Fold:
Amino acid sequence: MKLHKSGTVAAVWLLLLLGASPGSRAASKRDEAWDILKSNINEKSAEKSAVAIRVLELLPGDPQALELAQKAATDDRPDVRSAAATALGQLHGKSTAAILHKLLFDPEPSVALAAASALMPSKDPAAFEVYYEILTGERKTGNGVIAEQMKTLKDPKKLAAMGVEGGIGFIPFAGIGLTAFETLHVDDVSPVRAAAAKMLTNDPDPESGHALVTATTDKSWLIKTAALEAIAKRGDPQLLDGILPALMDDNTAVRCTAAVAVIRLSTLADRINKKQ
Structure:
């Protein structure tokens, strides 16, 4: 397997960790993981940047993740702004609502929809206005922008890119919805297995944790991404070492999801060590 440039750095880093103390190892893991995320956020490719921003939602309460997502909300690329809206919906910062309200009037429909979706859990009236506009063709306030581009919502590929294509069933991250949609045309098994991996997130059986770690080495990037997301959400530091190789994966989604999983699990490991 050809290593990504960040993967080469990770390989050297892994060797250096062999003689490190538990505390310094955890700090090094977090630093390396943040480097991977920031490197992809700064990519010229909107798709790669969007993926890196989107996975920040797995780090609620992290001030650095919130800062990066807030900055991405002003990016000149719609895909990145959409990813930022989705991430901000989970990060719940003090200024999050204000930023999402602004994105509701973004000239790109996918961004406005992402912002509306992020605000829906709080039953924000402004979010309902967006869906009202989609249904009626106009906003109650009379200053909508989505109605002017309704043709976008009738394009299957655009719908897939926005993560609202009903036939997909499972998309790890909205920012890579179109890629997942295209994957279904050549592989009908991976999305099903990926969905199964995600469903194991809250299974307390340690065997499920081991199965998820094994899945991070699967041939399908979709399955690896889903497994890493589930591992991050399980919050079991004992799975940390098993996912380190994923930091060297060639696929952006896999690499970035592995990074947030490492950040999350290493932080938990630190807390446990301090209590002992």
Summary: The CA atoms of residues 3 and 250 lie 6 Å apart.
